[in-house]
Amino acid sequence: MRKTILAVLLLLACGAARADDAATHPAYWGSPSVDGGKCCATLAEVRENIDRIDHAIIALMAERGQYVAEAARFKPDSAAVSAPARVDAIIAKVRADAEAQGLDPIVAERTYRAMVAAFEDYERAEWARRQEAAPAK
Fold first, then answer.
1. Which range is least confidently modeled, 28-37, 56-65, 71-80, 103-112?
2. What are phi and psi of 39, to 5 degrees?
3. I want to staple 35 with a disulfide (CB 3.0 to 4.6 A). Which of 5, 39, 97, 121 is the partner?
C-alpha cells in the first residue's frame, strides 16, 4: 500500500513537472507574432496575457450586467426580456466589428449568442426580483 501511494505521488510530481516544462518550453514552430513579435517566447507568457485579458473581459461583463439589470426596468413583463430582432442586430454588429478587428466572426457570434442568452436569463431574474421588491400600487 505504501509503495502504491509513493508511486502515485511520484507520477503526480512528474506530471506537474511536465506541465511546468510545457509552460517554459520553447515553441515547436514559428516565431512570436503578437505585439509586433515582442510576445510570446513561452507558453507561460501567453497564459499571463490571456489571464490579463480575461480579467478585463470580466470587468466589462460586470459593467454590461449593470446595464442589463437597468434594462429590466423598461420591460412590462419578463417575457419582454427576449427581443430576437435586437439579438439579430447585436450579432450583425458584433460580426462586422470582429471582422474589422481581425477576430473570426464565427467565434464572436458564438461567444455573443451564449453571453446574450445568459444575460437574458439574468435580466428575467432581475425583473422578477425588482417586481417583488416594488411597492404595491
1. 28-37
2. -135, 135
3. 39
Q: What is the CATH classification number for the domain harbouring 126?
A: 1.20.59.10
The pLDDT value given to residue 2: 67
Beta-bridge partners for 39? 34
Q: How many domains does the chain have?
A: 1
Return contacts of 73-78, CB within 8 angstroms, 24+ apart.
73/130, 75/123, 75/127, 77/127, 78/124, 78/127, 78/128
Mean pLDDT is highest, among 8-12, 76-80, 106-110, for 106-110
pLDDT band at 27 (very low <50, low <70, confident <90, very high): confident
- Domain housing 113: 28-133
Judged by DSSP in three states, 55 sits in helix
Q: Are residues 120 and 81 in contact, defined by beta-carbon separation less than 8 angstroms?
A: yes
Looking at the domain assignment, is residue 19 inside a domain? no
Residue 11 in any domain: the answer is: no
Segment holding 89, helix H or strand E? helix 84-101
